[in-house]
Amino acid sequence: MGASAAFLAASGAKGAETPQPKIQGFDETNAGKVKTAAWTPFSDRKVKVGIAGYGVCKFGAQFGFQNHPNVEVVAATDLNPTACAELAKVTGTKKTYASCGEMYAKDREIEAVFIATDAPSHAKLCIEGMKRGLHVASAVPAVFGEEQLALADELLATVKSTGMIYALFETSAFRPECYAMREIYKVGGFGKLIYTEGEYYHYSAKPIASYNGWRVGLPPQYYPTHANAFYTCVTGGSFTSVTCLGMPSLLSDFQPGKNRYNNPFATEIALLRTSEDGMARMVKSRDVPGASGEKGRVYGQKGSFEARYSGQADISKVAQEKPPLPPGMPAGGHGGSHGYLTDDFIRAILLKQKPVCDVACALNTTVSGIYSHMSAMKDGETLKIPQFQL
Fold first, then answer.
1. Burial status of residue 151 (CB atoms within 10 A of its CB: 0-12, 13-18, 19 or more)
2. By the 8 A CB rule, do 64 and 329 touch?
3. What is the pLDDT of residues 272-300, one digit of tens each?
4. Can you tell me the distance from the alpha carbon of 137 to that of 174, in angstroms, rounded to the nearest whole number?
5. What confidence tier does 342 reach under pLDDT thresholds 50, 70, 90?
């Protein structure tokens, strides 16, 4: 049924005592402006959720499923038994499984699953979960690398054939700036976007620990979503073509023969044509000391948004503040996005509505990055990008 587990937790019996590294993004808990109104319950039902993956980022527990009033976490799994036990303890479940495959095969209680495993396993585990009759949410990216391009088509086809909810937990989608941009865009405040910028800087002299070392020498644009979302999760649109350039890195993991990807680049900068016939510049960089964060700007025919909106449209009635979360549910890291992604997924299940980053948005956000890396490896050759839609 496939392997699970994101990042290996600290090994050995003393793993829980080992100081955890500070990982960029998880400490960014400022959710921005949030409406002061009380949270309004929308259902009296609890969705029974299984969580796959914990590891060095503690990812399976970071999105607050265990705090949502419409969720009961009933199962946990990680390939590392110590991490699995800790995930179960933190999320309050008594049932644990040695792998995601075992959870799928044996657990008849779960209705939905959160896949917080290693990036190469996301697509396969999501497909298997939906075929098992489960709604699925996945950490980013949706698919991983050129070798998984066929899985992009299979993932889309599985959503269509099963009718299950699929959501990509793209954190930039609920960063305060991106949320405001999306609300303004919906009412025509920008018109068509002429130009968009998205940037994801994460300096890594040594990569974060990862299952089977998948992060070592990782092509930057295999993990593009935190930047690309400043277009796709604002407009719901896509990228149609790309030319991308990279610069050979000084970091040791990107030297010839030092990574499984034969990748020399730790920074790749893509210039993309958008589905509105506009342009976008999307950056993913791991080797620029002092640069950090996920940020974006949009420039449209009627207005723009850098730190705030400026333009011709009257947006005085547009609610740019995030709605409140349920009492006791933290907004979480990455710009206070974690809790909102979980709430969005649970609402999609119970209210039968589209999540913000559904399967089409997820694939348009992810696959464009894979093609960006392919372009960089061909010295900026312009490539057409496949399009995905429900």
1. buried
2. yes
3. 999 999 999 999 999 999 999 999 999 99
4. 15
5. very high
pTM: 0.94
Q: Give the SS3 label for residue 113.
A: strand
Q: Which domains does the chain have, with CATH numbers?
A: 28-171 (3.40.50.720), 172-309+359-384 (3.30.360.10)
AA letter at 243: T
CA dihedral 240, 243, 244, 245 (to 10 degrees): 180
Of the candidates 282, 278, 273, 284, the one whose C-alpha atom is nearest the C-alpha of residue 185 is 278
Which element (helix H / strand E) includes 200?
A: strand 193-202
**Pseudo-torsion of CA 293, 341, 1, 223, nearest 10°?**
-20
DSSP conformation letters of 261-272: T---EEEEEEEE
- pLDDT (tens digit, 9 = 90+) per residue, 142-181? 999 999 999 999 999 999 999 999 999 999 999 999 999 9
Q: Does the CA dihedral 281-285-289-294 come out positive or negative? A: positive
Count CB-CB contacts under 10 A for residue 10. Answer: 18
Q: What angle do CA 273, 277, 278 make, to 5 degrees?
A: 70
Record the tokens describing residue 86, joined without a space: 């800790």
Adjacent-strand bridge partners of 269: 245, 283
What would you report as the CA-atom Rg of the chain, rounded to the nearest whole angstrom? 20
State the Cα–Cα distance between residues 202 and 271, nearest whole angstrom.
20
For residue 22, the model assigns a pLDDT of 75
At 29, the pLDDT band (50, 70, 90 cuts) reads confident
Closest CA to 89 of 101, 102, 73, 104: 73
Overall average pLDDT of the 250-259 stretch: 96
Q: How far apart are the first and last CA of the chain?
A: 26
Query: Is the separation of the CB atoms in 336 and 29 below 8 Å?
Result: yes
CB 388 within 8 A of CB 359: yes
The stretch 373-378 carries a mean pLDDT of 98
The Cα–Cα gap between 153 and 293 comes to 31
For tokens 């620990």, name the residue: 209
pLDDT digits (tens, 9 = 90+) for 118-139: 999 999 999 999 999 999 999 9
